[in-house]
Protein: 2-isopropylmalate synthase
Amino acid sequence: MTANIHPRRQGMPEAAIKYQPYPQVNLPDRTWPGKTIAKAPIWCSVDLRDGNQSLVNPMGHDRKARMFRLLLDMGFKEIEIGFPSASQTDFDFARWCIEEGDVPEDVSLQVLVQCRPELITRTFEALEGAHKPIIHFYNSTSELQRRVVFGKDVAGIKQIATDAARMIMDMAAKAGGDYRFEYSPESFTGTELEVALEICNAVAEIVKPTAENKLILNLPSTVEMATPNVYADQIEWMCRNLDNRESLIVSLHPHNDRGTGIAATELGLMAGADRVEGTLFGNGERTGNVDIVTLALNMYTQGVDPMLDCSDIERIKAVYEYSNEMTIPERHPYVGELVYTAFSGSHQDAINKGMKAIRTANKPLWEVPYLPIDPRDVGRSYEAIIRINSQSGKGGIAYILQQDYGINLPRNLQVEFREDIQRITDEEGVELPSKRIHARFMERYVTQPGTRLRFVDHHTYPDPERKGVRIVAAEITDGGEVKRIEGTGTGPIDGFINALSIYLGVPMSVVDYSEHSLQQGSNAAAIAYVEVEHPGGKLFGVGINTNIVTASLEAIVSAANRVLEARG
Ligand SMILES: CC(=O)SCCNC(=O)CCNC(=O)[C@H](O)C(C)(C)COP(=O)(O)OP(=O)(O)OC[C@H]1O[C@@H](n2cnc3c(N)ncnc32)[C@H](O)[C@@H]1OP(=O)(O)O
Ligand SMILES: CC(C)C(=O)C(=O)O
Ligand SMILES: [Mg+2]
Structure:
């Protein structure tokens, strides 16, 4: 056995024999690690091409058109609409965009084509009449593809690119249109940097870009092969060494094979790239293209305007799912069903406190623990921020009652009620929806079905014999029978609990009291919370009434019922 094999390794071949490490870039004076992303790049959606070519069932007209409309609405200024020389569907779609697509003047339609004459000719036919379209031509330049796919050396591969560039420039000149051009040394990440540079410079020499009509040089991570820092090094190296950099737009086209497409793109932008090609939520070949929505919202959460409208993320998701016939997982950044939801107690507690602090501070700055973005900024609500299961704590339950029903539980009542909810979630092992939490609260503290005592009425008057003391005469029912009880105290609460203590023969006193209104307006109901001490401990009662004194006395009856229950 070789020393570096895990002794319990099973099945997989030895890594070092089957795979080799990706070479580092020799760039000791790299500058990108000190940079930040301070503005949005030029975005290009490749949903309708790279996304489409990876689908089980490629899009027909309707699915394409719906996606196209969304991309325009989101504010994309460059949209790769397909590979018109590859299929009639894509050709017809290009014609539809040009003739009926209502494409704004500042939007460039982009199409992909291989460096093959017959395909280039067909591409020009597809683009007739388009306003400033981008012709994106590509050929693979990687060492592996040179060897096994094309059987050509570097010169041969360079010639494929330069022949195509020449033909495209000739056709563009003859067509007289206002074309833009993009070249991709496809499989750039598998290409030696010197080779990629030589081919890109050779293409640029033919295209003759200017500061007014720049050549887009797209450096794709066709297959993501290394850690994101390596891609950043490659981009910085290319940006430093390309001829005539000011007439070029350096573009990234990352895929996500190692699951680090977002990081690679962000570091690539720090390394000097101007533009990003990607797809909504990262659909695309294999593990996908880089996810533009996540990139944009990552920028947004750093205070940088992403220049893309993601304010209706549910619409973006719906179109993604319709057009791609795929679904988005619950944990997908910014859009997944569960990404704004905390089930666990300490997260809920912190969110609850953070939301309260935001409400009271009345400042626009978003600072809520565990929520990197305000869900409302992308059209999501606060409804699902906190959901309750057996992992939840008092803060979460308090949040739900506050958020959904305007009930602000005092801290000790949160602790008490949490125990009750915890018993249920442990028993049932599933999530407890907000409605059930509220119903349980009402049943346990307010309506109390099956309990003995009910409050009916009361009046108070001064004790003629003791100054500052009032007599409370109250009517209650006990098991349905009307009872008149009497007690004394400094006010109605004091006097009423004294009356109940005498009647029940159980000493009780109020140790905490609070109340608040439940709705806005003059007919607002009040909710009162009393914490009552009795020989067996402390517990809460709650009353709800339009009259605040009545609510308080009902809360005492509620507590007394619970005392009786506790005493068996
Ligand atoms: C990384 C990317 O995403 S690249 C984009 C890939 N997208 C697609 O392929 C989707 C659309 N493609 C298609 O519908 C088809 O491939 C077509 C219509 C473009 C071409 O179809 P076909 O000619 O029948 O076949 P195929 O795709 O197998 O062609 C491969 C041939 O083209 C050559 N070739 C492949 N890419 C290129 C290129 N960019 N430039 C020049 N030649 C190329 C290959 O070397 C191969 O040559 P060979 O026939 O001499 O062996
Ligand atoms: C056509 C090119 C840009 C591509 O999709 C890739 O390299 O991934
Ligand atoms: Mg791609």
Remarks:
- The chain is about 40% helix and 20% strand.
- Residues 50, 112, 138, 184, 186, 218, 220, 222, 253, 255 surround 3-methyl-2-oxobutanoic acid (ligand 2) (CB under 6 Å).
